[in-house]
Amino acid sequence: MRAAQLRLEDLFEVDSTGGIFRFAGERVVLLDAVALGLLRTQLVQDFGERVARGILTRLGYSHGWRIAEAIRETLPWDDQHEWQSAGGRLHRLKGMVRFEPVQDAQRKGPEPLADALWFDSYEAEQHLTHLGQSKEPVCWSLCGFASGYLSAATGKDVYCIEESCVGCGDSVCRMLGRTREEWGEEIEPHLPFYEKDCLEASLRSLRDEIKQTEARLRATKKKLKEKTKDTDPSGLIAQSQAMQQVLQLAQRTATVDTPILIYGETGVGKERIAQLIHDRSPRQAGPFVAINCAALPDQLLESELFGFDEGAFTGASHARAGLFEAAQGGTLFLDEIGEISPALQVRLLRVLQERKVRRLGENHDRPVDIRILSATHRDLHQAVQAGHFREDLLYRLRVIELHIPPLRERADDILPLARAKLKEAAQRFQRDVTDFTPAVARQLLRYTWPGNVRELQNAMERAVVFAEETCIDLHDMPEEIEQAKTKTLPTLPTIKPPSWDTTSRTQQTLAEIEKEHILAVLHHTQNNKTEAAKRLGIGIATLFRKLKAYQEETLQEP
Ligand SMILES: [Zn+2]
Which of 124, 209, 515, 521: disulfide with 166, CB 3.0–4.6 Å? Predict the structure, then answer.
């Protein structure tokens, strides 16, 4: 039999079920060309053209090699040559490309093993459709197929390369096949696509590239994280609406260059909010200087703030600038401003009014360009009333007021904050502690946090140090948190000892008496609802429903 006699009907069979196709005895599937085109596109886009070419060339190669083996024994070939030259015919019968051998008398050098024109290459068509015109030939799997087939049929390393290709704008694809020796140096650039090593090398370099990109990404992330750690107190964690409002207000007021007074209990993170305001302000490039006014005795605080001249007082061996000057062009944050002495209040007022400072022991002023942010846990209006704080200073400081709610009023922040603090502590102490038990979570939510975020941070640090397992247990927590009882309902301010004055009781409705009684029992059981429901002789669900109704009543009252 000769190659030209190969016909599709001799090679292609459909089995009796109609679901299994065979070509030259091997199972085949019909895939539409577009699907293959999309696969090629995906490979090029995900791994680059080089890797895609390698994969498709190898795919074609093994396809060609296998079919050469498959038809060698099953068909009665006239001779070896007919079998060898059947590859092109098979290509055509498989619908991949129309093959026409060329006899080129003009060609110099030894006659190639294969020289053919390819028409209607499905591969060039798909490449053009999905990826557009290429700079180099694109019939990669066809070349692979021809190379694989001829290598199997001749027992030599044969490489088929396209001289021209429709995929790169030529009018026709032309393929040449030679052995490696015949090709000489010319084949070198093509070899990598045929070698498995090449694919591995390509993938390796791709992997290296990915690794490098990942490293760069990690570095950027780390930098960003470090930056946010210092400058963005979203590290403050604001899941609660109350805190989100504070952050929004802080960011809005940041751009207005006025003094801001921050109210909040100890440990709520006033300095971090001040830092946020500075970082979002036009002064962000300038320094952010913070001092806790309650931490220093009056005289020391004064010399810290204002600076001093040489010999201004005993021990002033050389002149030094104060913090007002150090904050030049930036922001000075005065924490616990409510603690400063009346004398210092006067001096501070003068700085705010005149924007000048005078170092201790000097007799001339220095201009300062700073924004003053201050904070306090005290009610300064009350301090003004009591005569402890200057009213004019207060009005200078509180052009804008920000109130940071205590932690117990923003329950939504407690667990996310606890997790963040746990993670920080685990990293700092290099301990493999990753979580806490549900019982710990319950107690964290029950506890009232008088020391706020700072207390939570200390508690988590301690727990990380004490934890024996990777998960923090209740007994790793400070006692007061471990023992914390259920919070009394903060939204039920009407809980008060009932008046048993019968004269007034006759004025009440039954519902009012019932409410009073229920709240009194709750009070007696220290807000233990199960116990209260038992004493009242009602179901727990009924109790909850009634409490909820009382709560809503309270909210509706003017
Ligand atoms: Zn081509």
Answer: 124
Distance, CA 165 to ligand 1 centroid (Å)? 4
- CA 136 to centroid of ligand 1, rounded, Å: 9
User: 476: which residues sit within 8 A by CB, 6+ positions away?
Assistant: 440, 462, 463, 466, 467, 468
Measured in Å, residue 99 CA sits from the centre of ligand 1 at: 12
| C-alpha distances out from residue 8 to 62, 93, 253, 512, Å | 21, 6, 80, 96
For residue 156, report the distance from its CA to the centre of ligand 1, in Å. Answer: 24
Measure 40 CA to ligand 1 centroid, in angstroms.
15
- Pick the closest to residue 171 from 120, 132, 127, 216 (CA basis): 120
The distance in angstroms from the start CA to the end CA of the chain is 104
Dist. CA 362–CA 48, nearest whole Å: 72
Distance CA 94, CA 157 (A): 24
Cα gap 413→134, rounded to integer Å: 56
In this structure, how many other beta carbons lie within 10 angstroms of the beta carbon of residue 161?
A: 18
Task: Specify the pTM.
Answer: 0.48
Q: What residues contact 82, with CB distance under 8 A and at least 6 apart?
A: 1, 2, 3
Residue 43 CA to ligand 1 center (angstroms) comes to 18
Taking the centre of ligand 1 as the mean of its atom positions, its distance from the CA of residue 143, in whole angstroms, is 9
Residue 78 corresponds to which tokens in the numbers above?
């006239």
**Residue ranges per structural domain of the chain:** 3-194, 233-405, 408-482, 502-556
**CATH number of the 233-405 domain:** 3.40.50.300
CATH level 3 topology of 408-482: Helicase, Ruva Protein; domain 3 (1.10.8)
Which residue do the tokens 């549900």 mark?
A: 438
Q: Which helix (H) or strand (E) holds 211?
A: helix 196-231
Residue 7 C-alpha to ligand 1 middle, in angstroms? Answer: 24
Q: Into which CATH architecture does domain 502-556 fall?
A: Orthogonal Bundle (1.10)
Residue-level pLDDT, tens digit, the chain, 558 residues: 888 888 888 788 888 888 889 888 888 888 899 999 999 999 998 888 888 999 999 999 999 998 888 888 778 888 888 888 888 888 888 889 998 888 877 777 778 888 999 999 999 999 999 999 999 999 999 999 999 999 999 889 999 999 999 999 999 999 999 999 999 998 988 988 887 665 566 667 767 777 777 777 777 767 665 544 433 344 567 888 888 889 889 988 998 889 999 999 988 989 999 999 999 999 999 999 999 999 888 888 999 999 998 888 877 788 889 999 999 999 999 999 999 999 999 999 999 999 999 999 999 999 999 999 999 999 999 999 999 999 999 999 988 899 999 999 988 889 999 999 999 999 988 899 999 998 999 999 999 999 999 999 999 999 998 888 899 998 989 888 888 876 544 443 333 333 444 444 566 677 877 888 888 888 888 788 888 888 888 877 788 888 888 877 766 654
